[in-house]
Amino acid sequence: MPTVILTHLGRTRYADAWELQHRLWDARCGGAVGDLLLFTEHEHVYTLGRSGDENHLLASADELKARGAEFFPIDRGGDITYHGPGQVVGYPILDLNGFTPDLHRYLRSLEETIILALRDFGISAGREEGMTGVWVGGEKIAAIGVRVSRWVTMHGFALNVNTDLTMFDRIIPCGIFHKGVTSMQRLLGRTVPLQDVEASLSRAFAQVFACELTSVPAGQLMETLKTTSETATAVPVESGLQRSE
């Protein structure tokens, strides 16, 4: 059974988490670290995938500043989405050669992880034909956008827990005009502790990926990365596969 390191990063700026992902991706490709699952909660940010349309960001630069939100074109698949407080973001950094080297199956496994976790809270979620992500009643509750190169994954999923859904009003989420978004808070009528959601996601991830999760504090992970960075083989993130949210 594969072992995956689970680390809770807490609240992060998107740029910091993005840089950390790249460093860990390099280290994973070089064999300096094992497989990882990172959980975080971002400050307000809109991100645009490589296949996205910048016109799907409806807010001006001044409006972004007023909302305290940043904007980043990034290297995952998919269009535009929002991350922010009250949302659980998961970044698996996995060598799929140790699991199943199949991008389609990987995406479906991420969806299944979220669907199973939501069952713990009495939420019946599922898929929409022809679309990536997790849906409840025709509204998206979780977005998925990944990059896979050399069969090592980056980016991941974002689950709306207590998310301020009005932040989605200034984008066309994932480039989909005719679908709305929802959250666990809206569906349940109460605030949901993020740590409870992360615990359910962890159990579901271990079940779906048939792995054992080992918790490692963020500080310890940073120290490991620091001590291995000089010997890890740096591999450029090029010629990867992307899939949309």
Fold and architecture overview:
With 245 residues, the chain is of the alpha/beta class. The chain has a single domain, classed as 2-Layer Sandwich (BirA Bifunctional Protein, domain 2), CATH 3.30.930. The protein is built from six helices and twelve strands. The strands form two sheets. Strands 1, 2, 6, 7, 8, 9, 10, 11 and 12 form a nine-stranded mixed sheet that branches. The chain has a three-stranded mixed sheet with strand order 4-3-5, with no helix packed on it. Helix 2 links the parallel strand 3 and strand 4. The longest helix has 17 residues.
- What sequence of helices (H) and strands (E) makes up the elements? EHEEHEEEHEEEEHHEHE
Mean pLDDT: 88
What is the C-level CATH assignment? Alpha Beta
Could you give the distance between the termini?
29 Å
Question: Helical element count?
Answer: 6
Key features?
disordered C terminus, alpha/beta, globular, 12 strands, three-stranded mixed sheet, BirA Bifunctional Protein, domain 2, single chain, 245 residues, nine-stranded mixed sheet
Offer a concise description of the structure.
The protein has 245 residues and is an alpha/beta fold. The protein contains 6 helices and 12 strands. The strands form 2 sheets. Strands 1, 2, 6, 7, 8, 9, 10, 11 and 12 form a 9-stranded mixed beta sheet that branches. Strands 4-3-5 form a 3-stranded mixed beta sheet, with no helix packed on it.
Secondary-structure blueprint:
Blueprint: E1 3-12, H1 14-29, E2 35-42, E3 45-48, H2 61-67, E4 70-73, E5 80-83, E6 87-93, H3 103-119, E7 134-136, E8 139-149, E9 152-160, E10 180-181, H4 184-188, H5 194-208, E11 212-215, H6 218-228, E12 241-243
Parallel strand pairs: 1-2, 1-11, 3-4, 8-10
Antiparallel strand pairs: 2-6, 3-5, 6-9, 7-8, 8-9, 8-12
